[in-house]
Amino acid sequence: MADVKPYWQNYIDGAWVHGGAGRIDVTDPATGERIAEHALADAADVDRAVGAARRVHLSGALTAMRPIERGRMVQAMGRYLLDHKDEIACILTLEQGKPLWESHIEVEGAALYFEYYGNQASTVEGRSIPLGAGYMDWTEYEPFGVSAQIIPWNYPVEMTARTLSAALATGNTCVIKSPEMTPLTNAWLARAAEAAGFPPGAVNVICGLGRAAGAALAGHRDVNQIVFTGSVPTGIAIATAAARNVVPCVLELGGKSAAIVYDDADLDAFENDIRWGIYFNAGQVCSAMSRVIVHESRHDELVERAEKVAKSLSVGPGIERTEFGANMGAMVSDGQRDRALGMIARAEEQGARIAAGGRKPNRPGAFLEPTVLSGVTPDMDIAQQEVFGPVLSVLSSREDAQAIEIANGTDYGLVAGVFTADLDRATLAARQLRAGQVFVNEWYAGGVETPFGGYGKSGYGREKGREALWNYVQTKNIAIRLKG
Ligand code: NAD
User: Fold this and answer.
1) Domain range for residue 70?
2) CA 19–ligand 1 middle distance (angstroms)
């Protein structure tokens, strides 16, 4: 096992510092053992971090720079992550539980955000607006200033990279509140900023409890914009805090996303979608394929195939799972695993059948067997509430319209999928699905280039793609009265 540094600090104004609230234990969910301690920020630390970010913003250090140069620095951060991929991946697996090969994918994905948004820095252009001979008028996009970014524990490296890269590319300074369960890997984001030449205070990374440091950051009067990725109740608290200071916020929240499988779908290929859609990162993915709505004529076949996929995965410590393959790691904590178990038990009480998994394996650690529930109906809690674990619910439908109605029948609307050989049918469904992103014939089709975000209680605003750039800038119009 890697030799983990016993104590990790917060990064404020270019210095590694203790936390005013003491320390927090970071635990390996595969063993339940403590692997390190992390400094825990209090409101005074948050205040220092926001003050440093504000100072850099007001200095003009990032805004005066030619965007193409700022973009180069953003890209350098991505390369820094790739240069340190092995160490980051190892710590990520130890703090979060995912297989080591998945951690490698996460670090590569994080680097891609810096590459993409570094490239976009010089493309944020205003326009000139004709007002007749007497005027010259144009728009410019200016950064908001201090961007506060509150990060969840499921993809700590990638989620921070997603918001940090776009915010820096557009010239904002940042305060990151890393997740208290998985804070260690965020250290490399701070190091990357330093290595790329960002001035002290441009990027601050602090770990703290949500209700303390998180709330202090969201409510800080010198924060100019907030990006939150996490659960719905916290999103509501953040949006409320943002409203009090009249600052914009982006909410990337949860989901109960459904794949509609029509009677003409290729079920051989769909096995792969089950494998990635619900068992990648042990299902702790906001856009996980947590429901499948299958045409009744293919229901039994699909459940059999899902059962086969679930049973094919070897479940155990992520650190031993180095190679890409049919395996799954621990969930992030015993608490999350037990919550999922509770939801499975409730689903059984309400009439669902456990076709595969449903139990914790007989070993220590926050493990849960890859689970398939069949006979799920739309009124059951399991069909409405996010599990955030490796639990697939299979529902059946009789006709296309009914499948769409079931898919749209939750409070959420993050992503959705349609599986069919008929592109007309797929297009019709895609237009009717209430979700920010629709996958046709491949769950997770898309990439950093494609906008992502929710309808309904899945949040508002878009991350990824060019759309995300507009979260971080405000429009200024300049009109000149010409003489003569
Ligand atoms: P969470 O809401 O509990 O915590 C997210 C972050 O918010 C953490 O850093 C936490 O410390 C902080 N926080 C908690 N209370 C706070 C408060 N009152 N004020 C300010 N900050 C506070 O969510 P989680 O359990 O870490 O993550 C799981 C959830 O996140 C799931 O619902 C999942 O769907 C969602 N998620 C969404 C996306 C997306 O892009 N849509 C991505 C990943 C996770």
Assistant:
1) 7-253
2) 21
